[in-house]
From TrEMBL:
GO terms for molecular function: ATP binding; metal ion binding; protein serine/threonine kinase activity. This is Membrane-associated tyrosine- and threonine-specific cdc2-inhibitory kinase. It is found in: Golgi apparatus membrane. The lineage of its organism: Eukaryota, Metazoa, Chordata, Craniata, Vertebrata. It is a peripheral membrane protein. Acts as a negative regulator of entry into mitosis (G2 to M transition) by phosphorylation of the CDK1 kinase specifically when CDK1 is complexed to cyclins. Mediates phosphorylation of CDK1 predominantly on 'Thr-14'. Also involved in Golgi fragmentation. May be involved in phosphorylation of CDK1 on 'Tyr-15' to a lesser degree, however tyrosine kinase activity is unclear and may be indirect. Belongs to the protein kinase superfamily. Ser/Thr protein kinase family. GCN2 subfamily.
Length: 374
């Protein structure tokens, strides 16, 4: 039986047993100690890694006489969108006709993310475009799966909202709401965040995970780079490219996210909601302590054996330390659920003033909009 989260000594009572299986060679790096985060790393939107594949050309390029697939034709095909400005008689692509490009937010192995303004409603959005054209029908289906997953997430105030998706000239486009910055960007150069802000962030993200888990979804890549902030510092979980749908049964195509945040049981192929709780715990540990999370080696293993470096956590309240220790419990069966965490005393207290702060912000917004109208 796990100890109550409100028990101050919980962090010292949790399991300290070593990992039951050898750590994969991928993680055997020389990490001798924990260190403060290094400033100056790239801070753009991040994208999940593309799975390994054989570098073969698409069929249409090898056998040029064959008819092209419908999705490789120039005209855009709706995956999930409705547009009123697009004119199919013009040569410009749907992206150029319907959006004003304002800049590139980031680039990864999978695609690029752009900041755009819609010519239809004049609002700002983010549009992710795959870097390479589809390599075949299976590659197309794999990429379209991200659209299906994001649509399954649905609407929630703590999840980045999906708008629409389309494919054009063999590339996939996904349009989402735009947030001014990621949590990683916000934390860069600031050092440890105030504990009140950390608690608010934790409460927001637990709301997001409760929403996902209730729909049978695992995020699988919770980290500061995938948490986005609104203008009023509401945290939103985004980047659903690695989401696992537990109700689909087949988890053979599951991909682990960033190794710095991944739960130890994922190395054994065990997928459950507890893995998201662990990754969120690592995220909170990083932003609360300004800790440079190790990619592997001894430090990586210590964090997955229940060890929290006291030189970094000494400034945290005993309540937050106990909560982090519970979230980073090595045994996923003993790790608290999202619902249990939300019912802890520290989160119940956070909920009261967090909701009050959001109400005040909403009131100020309404007042400002009324002043502009008048």
């Amino acid at each position: 039986m796990p100890l109550p989260l409100d028990y101050v000594g919980a962090e010292s009572q949790l399991s300290r047993t070593p990992l039951p299986v050898p750590v994969a060679a991928f993680f055997r790096e020389a990490e001798c100690s924990f260190s403060v985060k290094k400033p100056g790393r790239p801070l753009s939107y991040t994208l999940p890694p593309r799975p390994r594949h054989k570098g073969t050309l698409t069929v249409s390029r090898v056998f040029t006489g064959r008819q092209l697939q419908p999705w490789s034709q120039p005209r855009p095909r709706s995956v999930s969108f409705h547009g009123h400005l697009y004119d199919p008689t013009r040569r410009e692509p749907f992206f150029s006709q319907c959006f004003e490009l304002l800049g590139r937010l980031g680039r990864g192995s999978f695609g690029e993310v752009y900041k755009v303004r819609s010519k239809e409603d004049r609002r700002l959005y983010a549009v992710k475009r795959s870097v390479e054209p589809f390599r075949g029908a299976s590659d197309r289906q794999r990429k379209l799966a991200e659209v299906r997953k994001h649509e399954r997430v649905g609407r929630h105030p703590n999840c980045v909202s999906f708008v629409r998706a389309w494919e054009e000239r063999g590339q996939l486009y996904i349009q989402t709401e735009l947030c001014p910055a990621s949590l990683l960007q916000h934390c860069e150069g600031r050092g440890p965040l105030p504990e009140s802000w950390v608690r608010a962030c934790l409460w927001d993200l637990l709301q997001a995970l409760r929403h996902l888990h209730a729909r049978g979804l695992l995020h699988m890549d919770v980290k500061p780079a995938n948490v986005f902030l609104t203008e009023h510092h509401v945290c939103k979980l985004g980047d659903f490219g690695l989401v696992l749908e537990l109700d689909r049964g087949d988890l053979s195509d599951a991909q682990e996210g960033d190794p710095r945040y991944m739960a130890p049981e994922l190395l054994r192929g065990e997928y459950s909601q507890a893995a998201d709780v662990f990754s969120l715990g690592m995220t909170i540990l990083e932003i609360a302590c300004n800790l440079e999370l190790p990619n592997g080696g001894e430090g990586w293993q210590q964090l997955r054996q229940g060890y929290l470096p006291p030189e970094f956590t000494a400034g945290l309240s005993s309540e937050l330390r106990a909560l982090l220790a519970a979230m980073l419990e090595p045994d996923p069966r003993l790790r608290p659920s999202v619902e249990t965490l939300l019912n802890s005393s520290i989160m119940r207290k956070t909920k009261k003033w967090r909701k009050l702060a959001l109400l005040v912000q909403d009131g100020l917004l309404r007042a400002a909009s009324l002043c502009q109208v008048s």
